[in-house]
Amino acid sequence: MPLSTDEVIDTAAELLRRHGLADLSMRRLASELGVRPGALYWHVENKQTLLVRVADRVLADVPTTTSGAPARDIRRLLTAIRTAVLPVPDGGEVVALGYALDPTSVQVFVHLRRLIGDLGVAGRDRAAATDLIVHHVLGSIAAQQDRQLAGLPTRGASAAFDRGVALVLDRLGRPTETTETAGATESTETTDRRQEEAT
Amino acid sequence: MPLSTDEVIDTAAELLRRHGLADLSMRRLASELGVRPGALYWHVENKQTLLVRVADRVLADVPTTTSGAPARDIRRLLTAIRTAVLPVPDGGEVVALGYALDPTSVQVFVHLRRLIGDLGVAGRDRAAATDLIVHHVLGSIAAQQDRQLAGLPTRGASAAFDRGVALVLDRLGRPTETTETAGATESTETTDRRQEEAT
DNA sequence: ACCTGAACACCGTTCAAGT
DNA sequence: ACCTGAACACCGTTCAAGT
To answer: How does residue A198 score in pLDDT terms, banded at 50, 70 and 90?
Structure first.
C-alpha cells in the first residue's frame, strides 16, 4: 500500500508533538515512515508547506461552537487554542507561520474572526482585532515555549495572558469613537511600499 | 589582532540584515570572519545566545526619547521599531526570541513598559499591556516577513497594524474597571502547572 | 588566551532511474 | 503513480592539540 499525504502530515504532527521542530526533519520523518527522504517530495512541495499543514492539524480538534455570548465564546476559544498548542513544542511558531501564510486555512481563526464580528466590531477593525488577538495568543505561547526549551521559568504566564485578553475584550465590547492614528502611520507606510514592490 | 565578541555579533547582524536566518549559519559567519567554525564557540556559548544578542543590536539604534505625551510617544516608538525590524529578514522572529528569553535585555522594550506606566496603567496590567503590544508588533512583522519570503502579497499590513495599535491604546488611555476573566482562566492554569513542573 | 583540524552526527532538495 | 539511490551543498557543536 502506497504512502498517503495524510499519513505524512499526521506523522509530522506526531513528531512535532513528541520532539519539537529540531527533530521534525524531512529525513527523520522519512525514516519514521519507512521511506527514503526523496519520497516525501512526491507528497509535499517542501518543508514549509508541510509545516503549514501541520499547523492546521494541531488546531483541528479545537471545537468551534457558539453559545450566543460572543465575549465568553472568545475567551473560551482562546483558552482552548492555548491548551491545544502549548503542549506541542514549537507549536506557537509553527501555527504563527500557518496563520501568516494562509490566515483562512485554520478553521479556528476564521471562527474567531466571526465571533469578533458578533461582538459588534465592524469593517477594518474586525480584521485588525483578529490579528491583534491571534498575535497575542501565539506570541505568548511561543515566548513561553522558548523559555521552557531554554530552561527558564514561566511562572504567571497564563495569568499575564488572560489579563492581556481582558484588556482587549473590555475595549471591543463597547462602541468605539476611533478617529486618530494618522500621524504615526506615514513612515511605516513608506517602508511597506518599498518592501511590497520588492515582492 | 584577535577576534572580539562584538565583531562576531556585528557581523552576525550584518549577515542577517543582508540574507536572513537561512544564511546566518555559524559556518558562514566563521568564514565571513576569516576563522574556523570552532573559533566562534570561544566567543559565544551557542547559536541561540548569539541570536539574542543580534536581536539587541537590531533595535540598538531606535531612540528612546520622551515628550510628555505618552500615547503619542508609544505610537512613535512602535512605528520606529517596525521601521527598524521590517527590513531585516526574519527580524520579527529573532527579536521575538530575544524578548522571550530576556525581556529586559532590549532597551526599547523597557522604555515601552515605562511609557505604558506613564499612561496610567498600573501593576499587573502594565506588564500584560506591554506583552500584548510587543506580541502585536513582532507578530505582525514576522507575519509580513514570512509572506514576503514566500512571495505572497502584503498589502495593507501597516494600516492593519496601526489599527490594532489604536484599538489597544484607546482603551489604555482611560481608567479601567476590570474585574472579570476568572472563568476562562482555570483550565489554562492547570496546563501551565503541568508544563512548569516539567521544566 | 585564542584558534585550528578534524571529526560526529546530522540537514533540505533534486533527479535520473527503477518498478 | 510512487519510490529508491545517490548525490550536492550544506548544518551545529565538540575538543584535543597547537601557538
So the answer is: very low
Using the structure, give the distance in angstroms from the CA atom of A98 to the C1' atom of D18, rounded to a whole number: 49
* CATH number, residue A24: 1.10.10.60
- Does residue A185 lie within any of the structural domains? no
A1-35 residue pLDDT tens: 789 999 999 999 999 999 999 999 999 999 999 99
What pLDDT is stored for residue B173 in this prediction? Answer: 64
Is the distance from CB of A167 to CB of B168 less than 8 angstroms?
Answer: yes
Cell 504615526 found at: A184
Do the domain assignments include residue A35? Answer: yes
Give contacts of A 150-179 with B, CB under 8 A: 150-155, 157-168, 170-172, 176, 178
The CATH number of the domain where A80 resides is what? 1.10.357
Query: Cell for B5?
Result: 565578541
Q: Which residue has the higher pLDDT, B155 or B185?
A: B155
Has residue A117 been placed in a domain? Answer: yes
3-state secondary structure of A190: helix
Nearest CB among B97, B144, B167 relative to A129 is that of B167
Query: Does residue A13 belong to any structural domain of this protein?
Result: yes
Position B116 scores a pLDDT of 96
Domain span at B35: 5-57
**For chain A, how many structural domains are there in total?**
2
Task: Determine the residue of chain B that is closest to A100 in CA distance.
Answer: B143
- B32-41: Cβ within 8 A, 24+ apart: B33/B3, B33/B7, B33/B8, B35/B3, B39/B3, B40/B8
Whether residue A199 has pLDDT greater than 50: no
Closest by CA to A166, choosing from B170, B160, B137, B179, is B179
Q: Is the pLDDT higher at B181 or at A175?
A: A175
